[in-house]
Write a structure and sequence with these properties.
about 45% helix, 7-stranded parallel sheet, 6-stranded parallel sheet, Rossmann fold, elongated, 15 helices, alpha/beta, 2 domains, GlcNAc_MurG
Length: about 375
């Protein structure tokens, strides 16, 4: 890894200028913003610009984190690196030109891409200018933009060693300090009060991600009477498009459509049932929460690959979406929820599979590349 070069006292050094490209989905944008925050922590003068498009969540998530956003035309790429990639030359050319204009205007010294619609144009524009390219792949199955970029640079980082990408070094996924620094035990009592849960007794956190997951909602709500009879509390985050009726009684079954600060939900919980997106897997292992992972049955089941290393390490369970129903919750999940020793063992295994310092590792590497490039230019 590169380390930021020391600066002699009295030397005036301009701020490092970094462009991050990870637009469209939260799974691409959040790691990019978490890296930006880490760059600022290591060098408060750092100038970070985000590339995005109007098609996704860029215009919502990036400004909320306080970083300037430059929009370029979106270029959805085929899932496979084949001739189809060459069948959209006009759109790709326009987007590369727009990305290059941004790189020139902000005088970028490095481009860090996380995949998605804006990454490929940013990589190609940076390559034409001889700028350092850094790639981060969060998913177990790399997208076409990052597979393309891995042919243009040796600075490639992945979430896990299982990711097959040229020149890859596994570091985890950049996460927010609110997650990586979470002490669940210390925050547990306050978090449970926040959601109206009892201070003692097992808590199952149910979440399908930002949009929710109907299969998870139906399975757990259908098992609510048996969960309650076993003394299991439930914190159920349904997502905005799904309705679940909170059954009255004790212990509590709390239903919320959305939780903004997930560290409180994680602190309140003992176990989670959820999808297995890359960010979800990274956050849960970082905080040491075991989970029953229900991969989204799309795109060839790629989410399954995110969860498999965690499950193999003993930090979770894996259930196909088609097999998830109230009966599975009762037969396979309930015995775990009522076994504190097993939860503790799974929590330790989940924590061992985590990588809480990926943001700092990646930020140090980027700053080191810029320092090396400046030194070589003298």
């Amino acid at each position: 890894m590169h380390a930021t070069a020391p600066v002699p006292r009295g030397t005036r050094v301009s701020a490092p200028r970094v462009v991050v490209a990870g637009g469209h989905s939260a799974g691409h944008i959040e790691p990019a913003m978490n890296l930006a925050d880490a760059l600022r922590r290591l060098d408060p003068t750092a100038e970070i610009t985000a590339l995005g498009t109007v098609r996704g969540l860029d215009t919502t998530l990036v400004p909320a984190r306080g970083y300037p956003l430059e929009l370029i035309p979106p270029v959805p790429l085929p899932r496979n690196l084949n001739l189809a990639l060459l069948q959209t030359p006009g759109k790709l050319r326009d987007s590369v030109r727009a990305a290059g204009t941004v790189l020139d205007r902000v005088r970028a010294e490095a481009v860090v891409g996380f995949g998605g619609y804006v990454a490929a144009p940013a990589y190609l524009a940076a390559h034409r200018r001889g700028l350092p390219i850094v790639v981060h792949e969060a998913n177990a199955q790399p997208g076409v933009a990052n597979r393309l970029a891995a042919r243009l640079t040796t600075h490639v980082f992945t979430a896990t060693p299982a990711v097959r990408l040229a020149h890859a070094t596994a570091i985890g996924i950049p996460l927010r300090p609110a997650i990586t620094g979470l002490d669940r035990s210390a925050l547990r009592a306050a978090a449970r009060r926040r959601f109206g849960l009892h201070p003692d007794g097992p808590v199952l956190l149910v979440t399908g991600g930002s949009q929710g997951a109907r299969a998870i909602n139906v399975a757990v709500s259908g098992a609510a009477p048996a969960l309650r009879a076993a003394g299991v509390q439930v914190l159920h985050i349904t997502g905005p498009q799904h309705e679940v009726e909170a059954p009255a009684g004790d212990p509590p079954y709390v239903v919320l459509r959305y939780v903004d600060e997930m560290q409180y939900a994680y602190a309140a919980a003992d176990f989670v049932i959820c999808r297995s997106g890359a960010m979800t897997c990274a956050e849960l292992t970082s905080v040491g929460l075991p989970a029953a992972y229900v991969p989204l049955p799309l795109r060839g089941g790629e989410q399954r690959h995110n969860a498999e290393p965690i499950v193999a390490a003993g930090g979770g369970l894996l259930v196909d979406n088609a097999d998830l129903d109230p009966a599975w919750v009762l037969s396979s999940l309930l015995p775990v929820l009522t076994d504190p020793a097993r939860i503790a063992a799974m929590s330790a295994a989940a924590s061992a599979a985590g990588a809480p310092d990926a943001d700092a590792v990646l930020a140090r590497h980027v700053l080191g590349l810029i320092a090396d490039r400046r030194r070589d230019a003298r």
